[in-house]
Write a structure and sequence with these properties.
- Helices cover about 35% and strands about 30% of the residues.
- By secondary structure, it is of the alpha/beta class.
- Helix 3 crosses helix 4.
- The protein is elongated.
- It starts with a strand and ends in a 6-residue tail after the last strand.
C-alpha cells in the first residue's frame, strides 16, 4: 500500500476526560494530517509539519473541514441480527422467538453466512466502526464466515460462536460437548490470526445448561488469552 496523507481537523483522546472542561485529555489539531504507510499510522500532527516529513509525492486526501477520528469501537454486536434490526416485539423473548431465532437459523448455510458477514462488516466500516466484539450464531460456519470476512478487510475484530444447548428452537441448539469442540477448533484457527481475537460465548444462562457453562469455563482455563462474553444481566 502506498503512503497517503489525510488532511483535516484531527481529534483523538489520550485518556478518559475527567469532566467537560478537561481539554487536556484530548488531542486536537485544526489543520492536521495523518500519514498512513503500509496500512499503519506513521505520523500525525500539524499538516505542514507532517507533510514535510512525508515521502516525496505522497497522495494527499483533503477532508477539510471534517473531523478525522480514530476508528470507533463497539463492544457488543450480533452479526446474525443485521437483518432484523428494529423489528418490534413487546418483550425480549417474543423478539427472540419471532424475529431473531428465525433469522439466525439461516446461518447454517455457509453462503448466507458469508454474504451477511460481508454486508455486516461493510456497514460497520461505513459508519466508522473499525473494531467490534461480536456474537455469531450457534453454527460454526457463521463464525468462520465472520472471521474470514474480517481477515480479508484487515480489521481488528473479536467474535465467537454462541453456545446454547437449551430453550431455543431445533436447529439453533448445540450440546455442551459440541459447543466445546467447535469453539476449540475455531480458537485454533482464528485466535491471533492477523488482528483477530476469539471470544468464548455462552449466550446467556437461560440458553446454557450448567454442563455447557462448565464447558465454557474449561475453554477459558485452557485458552487464557481468549476473551469471554455473555449476557450477564439479560
Amino acid at each position: 500500500m502506498t503512503a497517503r496523507l489525510i488532511r483535516g481537523r484531527l481529534l483523538s483522546f489520550d485518556r478518559r476526560p475527567e469532566g467537560p472542561g478537561d481539554t487536556a485529555a484530548a488531542f486536537y489539531e485544526s489543520d492536521g494530517a495523518v500519514l498512513l504507510s503500509r496500512g499503519l499510522i506513521a505520523d500525525r500532527g500539524p499538516f505542514d509539519a507532517v507533510a514535510r516529513r512525508a515521502p516525496p509525492g505522497v497522495e494527499v486526501i483533503d477532508h477539510r473541514p471534517h473531523l478525522v477520528l480514530p476508528g470507533f469501537i463497539d463492544t457488543h454486536l450480533h452479526m446474525p441480527q443485521a437483518q432484523v434490526v428494529a423489528s418490534y416485539a413487546a418483550e425480549l423473548l417474543d423478539w427472540l422467538n419471532d424475529h431473531t431465532f428465525p433469522a439466525e437459523m439461516r446461518f447454517e448455510d455457509p453462503a448466507h453466512a458469508a454474504r451477511i458477514a460481508g454486508l455486516f462488516l461493510d456497514m460497520l466500516l461505513a459508519h466508522g466502526t473499525t473494531t467490534a466484539v461480536v456474537y455469531c450464531s450457534v453454527h460454526r460456519a457463521s463464525t468462520d464466515a465472520f472471521f474470514d470476512a474480517a481477515a480479508r478487510r484487515g480489521l481488528r475484530m473479536i467474535g465467537g460462536k454462541v453456545m446454547m444447548d437449551r430453550n431455543a428452537p431445533e436447529g439453533l441448539t448445540d450440546t455442551a460437548q459440541s459447543a466445546h469442540d467447535d469453539s476449540a477448533a475455531l480458537i485454533a484457527r482464528w485466535h491471533g490470526h492477523g488482528r483477530l481475537g476469539y471470544a468464548i460465548t455462552p449466550r446467556f444462562a437461560i440458553t446454557s445448561t450448567p454442563a455447557q457453562l462448565d464447558a465454557a469455563g474449561a475453554l477459558v482455563a485452557a485458552h487464557p488469552g481468549c476473551h469471554l462474553q455473555t449476557h450477564l444481566s439479560e
